[in-house]
């Protein structure tokens, strides 16, 4: 009895986009099906290491392409691990990756841009519906006795029913659309396999008129000498191994020899995956042991901050029958991780030095991830600091810490930073004014991860990182722009400032930690800063947004003694002493500083009242 089921909403949406798009490169469907088939064979071969009875009788694994001109179908047949009834339903009816739903909702219909995005996301098995009106999957899982048939026209539902089949593996039959009949022709299939799947490590056969012909060279690409692998082949390998559609930004193919031996072919993608920051996301480096696939889920193989890497690592030294659990703890894996990390960072450093514009592209995609290494990996901290790039107040584009240090002003010892949600927001911060006036460069840090590595790292070479939004960012020691070779003398703070500061402190009492006169402002009258030792204000805001912060530390209100408003208030205090107008002004100054920080006012009604009475007094004068 065939049971009809609906696709998960996300799958229906994906199928709809795939079917209706004007995507030109339809032949990728074959690559997707062949790479799924090859993965299934890899898994069965691995399973057979511990349970030989579940392996292929002759120990040989293969993918067969079988066109049937009479039925107008093309079948892709593998003797891999197969799928149970439940697996057919789950794997071919749902998408388990989190974030998928939000991703698909953001897509429109039909546009080319969407197709590139979908490509990046990977249409996998569903790409079969680009060329077929109907798809039938018959599968028998290794170790089970009952096979099942999955069938669908890709329009909202599918059926699953028990079926007779005795060969373990999966047969996917595509009922080709009228205009896609070419995929039944041998020359067409040969061409596609040669271009897209030559590097697949197991034989891909074409079965026609009872004869079989091998279409690919069937040797694992990474085992070939580097100079015999063309860029085109490496790219195709990347597409298959990573199920990716973009081009690799960097390809790293090498053989490590010495204490441990392994070959690796790794890729840094050219495009940023949409789920890069999903905590459940795993890296995509596959582990092989002497050409046998072991796992794509060995978290210890590469550090989390290199989780954008794709590709394979093939070890000569690991025992083949090692369990996945022991694998995670294996010192050999730790050694490989160390080697891979060093190698990748070394290649990135070369790119950073030789191809700055290209490196900037990488940094925009993966910089925020790489920065996680600054607090996770003490050993590589120096290397990562040299690789880090930042937006800054001094230059368009990205700057390195080395650039920054080279431009430091006489008397400047610290590297100044500001953290904010965006470069624009950072540039609007009043705390930058004094630095700008003195020509002191400030790095604009806008990734959430910046809040975490900064306090951990604390220094680059002998230079401390200092936030401009903290008390203690002392500008007076730094020489400003010299006029006629003379260092401009700082004018003393106007008289009455100290008294005004004392009054503000008294009035605002518990609402602030302190009130101070500052030289960090030139245009604004006031700003808020975090006290030395307290949490950075941007971090406090981030944590508050995520409800991770209980009690927030109080801020310091800094006043600019040279601002006309502050001077006027100081004069008034000197002449008439304190009074309601000055008290209102004190609160208005604090609220103004809060607004500039983008914060909500604790008492907007009181603010409005004070502002109204202040305006009224002003108009009456
Ligand atoms: N020939 C096959 N044999 C066994 N299992 C298969 C086969 N084809 C697909 N599957 C299962 O179905 C799942 C879904 O396949 P699909 O191609 O849609 O996505 P994927 O390969 O996991 O990821 P991607 O989106 O990167 O292509 C696979 O992960 C695999 O478990």
UniProtKB/TrEMBL annotation:
Gene Ontology molecular function terms on file: ATP binding; ATP hydrolysis activity; ATP-dependent protein folding chaperone; unfolded protein binding
Region (C): 542-621
Domain of life the protein comes from: Bacteria
Gene Ontology CC entries for this record: cytoplasm
Protein's UniProt keywords contain DNA repair: no
Keywords: ATP-binding, Chaperone, Cytoplasm, Nucleotide-binding, Stress response
Subcellular location per the Swiss-Prot or TrEMBL entry: Cytoplasm
SUPFAM superfamilies cross-referenced by the UniProt entry: ATPase domain of HSP90 chaperone/DNA topoisomerase II/histidine kinase (SSF55874), HSP90 C-terminal domain (SSF110942), Ribosomal protein S5 domain 2-like (SSF54211)
Matches recorded under CDD domains: HATPase_Hsp90-like
InterPro entries: HATPase_C_sf, HATPase_dom, HSP90_C, Hsp90_fam, Hsp90_N, Ribosomal_Su5_D2-typ_SF
Record family assignment: Belongs to the heat shock protein 90 family.
Subunit structure: Homodimer.
Role according to the record: Molecular chaperone. Has ATPase activity.
Protein name per the record: Chaperone protein HtpG
Organism: Aliidongia dinghuensis
Species classification: Bacteria, Pseudomonadati, Pseudomonadota, Alphaproteobacteria, Rhodospirillales
């Amino acid at each position: 009895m065939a049971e009809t089921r609906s696709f998960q909403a996300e799958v229906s949406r994906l199928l709809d986009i795939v079917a209706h798009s004007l995507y030109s490169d339809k032949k990728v469907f074959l690559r997707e099906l062949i790479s799924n088939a090859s993965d299934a064979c890899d898994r069965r071969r691995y399973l057979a290491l511990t349970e030989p009875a579940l392996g292929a009788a002759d120990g040989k694994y293969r993918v067969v392409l079988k066109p049937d001109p009479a039925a107008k179908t093309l079948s892709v047949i593998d003797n891999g691990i197969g799928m149970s009834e439940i697996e057919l339903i789950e794997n071919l009816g749902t998408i388990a990756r989190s974030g998928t739903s939000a991703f698909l909702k953001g897509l429109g219909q039909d546009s080319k841009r969407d197709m590139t995005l979908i490509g990046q996301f990977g249409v996998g098995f569903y790409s079969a519906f680009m060329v077929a009106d109907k798809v039938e999957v018959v599968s028998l899982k290794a170790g089970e006795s009952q096979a099942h048939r999955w069938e669908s026209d890709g329009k909202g539902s599918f059926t699953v029913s028990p079926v007779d089949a005795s060969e373990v593996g999966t047969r996917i039959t595509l009922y080709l659309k009228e205009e896609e009949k070419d995929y039944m022709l041998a020359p067409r299939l040969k061409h596609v396999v040669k271009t897209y799947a030559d590097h697949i490590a197991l034989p891909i056969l074409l079965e026609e008129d009872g004869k079989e012909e091998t279409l690919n060279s069937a040797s694992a690409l990474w085992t070939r000498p580097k100079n015999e692998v063309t860029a085109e082949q490496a790219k195709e390998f990347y597409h298959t191994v990573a199920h990716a559609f973009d081009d690799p930004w960097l390809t790293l193919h090498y053989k490590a020899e010495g204490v441990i031996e392994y070959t690796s072919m790794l890729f840094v993608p050219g495009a940023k995956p949409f789920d890069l920051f999903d905590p459940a996301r795993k890296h995509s480096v596959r582990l092989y042991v002497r050409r046998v696939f072991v796992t794509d889920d060995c978290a210890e193989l590469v550090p989390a901050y290199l989780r954008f890497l794709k590709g394979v690592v093939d070890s000569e030294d690991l025992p083949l029958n090692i369990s996945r659990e022991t694998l995670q703890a294996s010192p050999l894996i730790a050694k490989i991780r160390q080697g891979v990390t060093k190698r990748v960072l070394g290649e990135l450093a070369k790119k950073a030095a030789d191809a700055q514009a290209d490196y900037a592209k990488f940094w925009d995609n993966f910089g925020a991830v790489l920065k996680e290494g600054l607090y996770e990996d003490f050993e590589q901290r120096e290397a990562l600091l040299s690789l880090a790039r930042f937006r800054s107040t001094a230059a368009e584009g990205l700057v390195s810490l080395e650039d920054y240090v080279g431009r430091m002003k006489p008397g400047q010892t610290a590297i100044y930073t500001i953290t904010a949600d965006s470069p624009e927001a950072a540039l609007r911060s009043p705390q930058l004014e004094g630095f700008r006036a003195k020509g002191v460069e400030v790095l604009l840090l806008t990734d959430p991860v910046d809040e975490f590595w900064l306090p951990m790292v604390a220094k680059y070479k002998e230079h401390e990182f200092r936030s401009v939004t903290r008390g203690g960012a002392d500008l007076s020691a730094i020489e400003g722009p010299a006029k006629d070779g003379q260092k401009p003398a700082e004018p003393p703070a106007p008289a009455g400032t100290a008294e005004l500061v004392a009054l503000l402190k008294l009035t605002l009492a518990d609402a602030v930690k302190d009130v101070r006169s500052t030289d960090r402002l030139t245009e604004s009258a006031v700003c808020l800063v975090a006290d030395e030792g307290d949490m950075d204000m941007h971090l406090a805001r981030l944590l508050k947004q995520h409800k991770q912060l209980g009690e927030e530390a109080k801020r310091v209100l800094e006043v600019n003694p040279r601002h006309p408003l502050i001077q006027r208030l100081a004069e008034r205090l000197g002449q008439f002493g304190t009074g309601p107008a000055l008290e209102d002004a004190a609160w208005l100054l604090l609220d103004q500083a809060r607004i500039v920080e983008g914060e909500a006012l604790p008492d907007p009604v009181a603010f409005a009242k004070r502002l109204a009475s202040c305006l009224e007094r002003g108009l009456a004068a």
